[in-house]
Amino acid sequence: MVLILVTTFLVSCSSPSQAKIPTVYTPEKIAQLEPYRAPIATARAKMATLQDLIASKNWVDTRTFIHGPLGELRQDMAIVSRKLLVKDQKPAQELAKELFGHFERIDAAAKDRDSAAAQAQYAEAIKDFDAFLNLIP
Ligand code: ZN
Description:
Blueprint: H1 2-20, H2 27-55, H3 59-67, H4 70-83, H5 86-111, H6 115-135
The protein binds zinc ion.
């Protein structure tokens, strides 16, 4: 009985994020967004590398990672934000701003060799990154 309740809770917990996906995007619009979504999703996949660098306290490569491939990500996020439904544009812009704020703080933590701060900022960055991706159909 307890297990059934837990399962029900998990299912109901995961449904809001699915409901958040806009249903009024046309297939044409989705196709237009895809070339921008793809590199953003690739960058999200590469975040595992950043996590490993932070976990192994490789601060030099952590900073190189943040200053390297993420420059294009900022641009792709700005472009895709402007192409979303009007109601999603502001939230997307805010999330992108948040995300890059966390990257800056990871960079500062790496400079200070502050492992706890770097890990905390990484966790926040992932939340904002995933929330951003959830806005793209
Ligand atoms: Zn945040």
